[in-house]
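Colleagues,

For the teaching module next term, I've prepared a clean inverse folding example: a structure given as tokens, and then the sequence designed for it. I'd like students to try predicting residues themselves before seeing the answer, so please don't circulate the second half yet.
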């Protein structure tokens, strides 16, 4: 089985930077995977990616050194198992609000005795090697999301669940439950919660992660976050297309007016 270099970097105290995929395309996955991100996450909760897309995109990412991670739609044992069998090296689970829900995440991500994941290697029996079953519990990253006021209130209990490698803040949903507009970098109660997550993760020896963009990377890293999303496929496309059309129209206007 390949080493999960993201978990190795976390153990070494390093910050890992990731890309985010919502578009169901192997070409988009290939473009992102060759850019030098530590990990790439396939968003199956809010993105447009289905199971068949995800398998092909994981295969594409596996051609590089980038680690493939999947955000599943919900805390579903069978679906988590299926994405791990497809080759995901990490699982992000949304809306985990309690220790019991965090234990369900771990249970789905780990083989016995650490969990109840079913042994049914199909793709991974070919791609991951004969030692996958023996090493998967150590190499797979188990990542519940902390994205509600309730989750922050139960944070110590969630972080105390054995087998949780990291927690990942969803800023938009967390902001909403704190009475704020959705955003990546709200102040007030959101900033207090962000700092509380960082402190609690350090105390428990769990990695703090957060959904962000490149402009916020230094801010989050300085607070102790080791898992930071810095680029999203469709947002990059929107930005580049907007810049190109604006530049082209400006240049055309100058030619016509001149």
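(Answer key — instructors only)
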């Amino acid at each position: 089985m390949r080493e999960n270099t993201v978990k190795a970097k976390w153990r070494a105290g390093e910050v890992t930077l990731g890309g985010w995929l919502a578009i169901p395309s192997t070409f988009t996955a290939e473009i992102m995977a060759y850019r030098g991100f530590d990990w790439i996450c396939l968003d199956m909760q809010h993105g447009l990616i289905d199971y068949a897309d995800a398998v092909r995109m994981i295969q594409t990412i596996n051609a590089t050194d980038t680690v493939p991670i999947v955000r599943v739609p919900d805390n579903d044992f069978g679906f988590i198992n299926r994405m791990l069998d497809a080759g995901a090296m990490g699982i992000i689970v949304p809306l985990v609000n309690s220790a019991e829900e965090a234990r369900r995440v771990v249970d789905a991500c780990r083989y016995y005795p650490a969990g109840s994941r079913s042994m049914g290697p199909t793709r991974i029996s070919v791609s991951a090697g004969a030692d996958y079953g023996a090493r998967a519990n150590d190499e797979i990253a188990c990542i519940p999301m902390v994205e509600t006021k309730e989750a922050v209130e139960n944070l110590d209990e969630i972080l105390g669940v054995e087998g949780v490698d990291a927690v990942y803040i969803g800023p938009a949903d967390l902001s909403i439950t704190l009475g704020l507009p959705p955003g990546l970098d709200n102040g007030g109660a959101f900033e207090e919660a962000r700092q509380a997550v960082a402190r609690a993760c350090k105390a428990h020896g769990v990695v703090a992660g957060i959904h962000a963009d490149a402009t916020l990377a230094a801010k989050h890293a300085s607070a102790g976050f080791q898992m930071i999303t810095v680029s999203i496929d469709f947002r990059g496309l929107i930005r580049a297309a907007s810049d190109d059309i604006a530049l082209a129209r400006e240049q055309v206007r100058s030619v016509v007016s001149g």
